[in-house]
Write a structure and sequence with these properties.
By secondary structure, this protein is mainly α. 65% of the residues lie in helices and 0% in strands. The radius of gyration is 20 Å and the shape is flat.
Length: 111
Amino acid sequence: MNTNLFFAAIMLVGGVGAVYTMPARLNNSEEPDNKNSEATNLVPYSTFFKNKYACLAVLARPLSTLCFWFLDPILGLHLVNLGMKDEDTGFVFALYAATWAIGSPLVGYIC
């Protein structure tokens, strides 16, 4: 239980820090690249939630990061408790790392 609370606190601090350090706009530069692109400097982050594919990527990324943060310290111990040999638990880590490596470019391509 203490491990869960500790990592939940770490995730909370990271999430709150990300929210407070995020700028209000994608591009906060005062001078536009050219005279006709002034509107492109006023794109809010909420635009990502209007595109369903970009919204999926924006929501999937933090969720997968939270899973990594939570699983890394406890997955090996839990698998041993379930009856897996300690030497074989690395295969499970390799499996979800491979899934991450294959899935990340696919999500980027979909967006």
